[in-house]
Design a protein that fits this description.
mainly alpha, single chain, 18 helices, globular
Length: 510
């Protein structure tokens, strides 16, 4: 059990570093690019390789591959595990290469043979950025596959450090842009896309090298494609990809609706999501990353009770941080947005818009984290259909709510409606996943979380009151005011929890 916490701490530490670098990156990008049409075009273009990453990288393929690969590792069949990894990797690269080529040719054809139709500058910039970022799809999926292999073997350090590379290259390019103020905004964002492409190649090379050091030397092979385990991986991938594809299509719909809602909406939502990535990535993603191979190993041994204990213990630890983080972000949304983003091309109107979305996203922070712990419960049992059915339900609900938000809300509040829809659907998804898990394996032990979560909410309420008092009483520069508010809030929360007999456990006890 305590290995879960150690591995989560490792993943969380590197993820925290990546998220901090990501915030530095966003601070620079908000100042040098702004929250206008160029950022919206980039957000839409970057969503395409990210969609492929969710489908073929750390999403559907990894979720299907890790339980099967972990079963071979648990059985000490390393040679079979090596052949499985090589076969799946070869097939993935060939598939992704074909997709990239087809999309590139399709875009070139659409631009050069558009029958005299005029395309807006934003549309042309988006197409240009998409073409630049297409090869990144192959690189990041290869890197994500390597992460899955290493995580299944219990080597979380290198896999969790890999995302930092992207931010290092990205920040480096933004710093370079700082010394070239003559560049137009569209030229700046294209330079950023080029830096991302180079970073993706480095990330994949790093992961393949780490795989080699772990004893799973990567290589292309055209044998073993008909193996039963390989077919199982692809069958489960196909099922999971439908669900992940529905989610990603919905995400793309969100981006398109963001463009319809207002010219700046997609960029604003992207900035708000980046702020949520820090607590969600450090805690929620870290637990989700560790729990998939952990659950897979326990279910491979038939230890359902051990998996249940791991889920309850990890959920308690995760919520101990996520609940106050949600309340704190909600209360301090304007201050956090100002400190992180305000300056240069990012004006007061952009601060107001982003902070509104952040406050709404914060409400769903705990649900986002729980989803990342609940979905691996099914994936570890090679059950991809249950998450698929639930994701399709939530996607349909989200699409309907998003359309209502764009149609019914005032322009300045439409992006807030999009964020509220995402939060509501995350809550619904958690309820449906928990009910399905109960029907499949019996009680998850969620009742044991009621008392501690109630104390967390009470402690967070006391913390919010203390932060509100600080905001009224302290009048310092924005950075210092935010630092004082965070320090007072954290101190108040931990003191309140200690008074109620709760604290962060170094050991996973429930």
């Amino acid at each position: 059990m305590n290995r879960i916490l150690r591995n989560t701490a490792t993943v969380g530490a590197f993820t925290a570093l990546s998220r901090v670098l990501g915030l530095v990156r966003e601070m620079l990008q908000s100042r040098f690019i702004g929250a206008g049409v160029e950022q919206s075009a980039f957000t839409l273009a970057f969503a395409i390789p990210n969609m492929a990453r969710k489908l073929f990288g750390e999403g559907a393929l990894t979720a299907a591959f890790v339980p099967v690969f972990k079963g071979e590792v648990e059985a000490k069949a390393i040679e079979r595990a090596r052949r499985l990894a090589r076969a799946v990797m070869t097939m993935s690269f060939l598939m992704l290469g074909a997709i990239v080529a087809l999309v590139f040719v399709g875009l070139e054809t659409a631009v050069h043979f558009r029958a005299g139709l005029e395309m807006s500058g934003r549309a042309l910039l988006t197409v240009r950025l998409v073409k630049t970022l297409l090869p990144y799809m192959i690189f990041i999926c290869g890197a994500a596959f390597g992460m899955g292999v290493l995580n299944a073997m219990g080597r979380f350090r290198a896999a969790s450090a890999m995302p930092c590379l992207l931010n290092v290259f990205w920040i480096g390019m933004l710093v370079w842009i700082c010394f070239h103020p003559e560049l137009r905004l569209d030229q700046r964002i294209h330079r950023v896309a080029m830096a991302i492409l180079v970073a993706g190649a480095v990330q994949m090379a790093f992961m393949l090298w780490c795989m080699h050091r772990a004893g799973i030397t990567p290589g292309l092979t055209f044998s073993g494609w008909a193996d039963a385990k390989v077919r199982l991986v692809w069958r489960n991938t196909a099922i999971a990809a439908v669900g992940a594809g529905a989610v990603q299509i919905n995400y793309m719909l969100d981006q398109v609706l963001g463009q319809v809602a207002a010219p700046w909406a997609a960029g604003v939502i992207g900035y708000a999501e980046r702020l949520m990535d820090l607590p969600l990535g450090v805690i929620g993603v870290a637990f989700g990353t560790v729990l998939l191979p952990t659950f897979a190993g326990l279910f491979a041994k038939g230890d359902v009770e051990g998996a249940r204990e791991a889920f309850v213990a990890s959920s308690r630890q995760m919520l101990f941080v996520m609940v106050p983080a949600a309340v704190g972000l909600g209360v301090l949304a304007p201050e956090v947005t100002t400190v992180i983003y305000r300056g240069g091309a990012f004006d007061a109107a952009a601060v107001m818009r982003v902070s509104r979305a952040v406050a709404v996203y914060a409400v769903g922070l705990g649900f986002f984290g729980l989803q990342k712990s609940l979905v691996p419960w099914f994936q570890a049992q090679n059950d991809m259909k249950t998450p698929l059915r639930i994701s399709v339900c939530t996607v349909c609900l989200n699409a309907a709510l998003n359309i209502l938000a764009v149609v019914c809300l005032p322009v300045e509040w439409r992006h807030v409606g999009l964020a509220a829809s995402t939060t509501a659907c995350a809550a619904c998804g958690c309820v449906l996943l928990a009910r399905s898990a109960r029907r499949r394996n019996g009680s998850l032990g969620l009742r044991r979380l009621v008392a501690p979560v109630s104390k967390m909410l009470l402690g967070s309420a006391v913390m919010a009151a203390a932060i509100a008092a600080v905001k009224l009483a302290v009048h310092l520069p924005p950075v210092l005011s935010l630092a004082v508010a965070i320090a007072v809030g954290c101190t108040t929360y931990f003191a309140a929890m200690a008074a109620m007999g709760m604290g962060w456990k170094r050991r996973l006890v429930v």
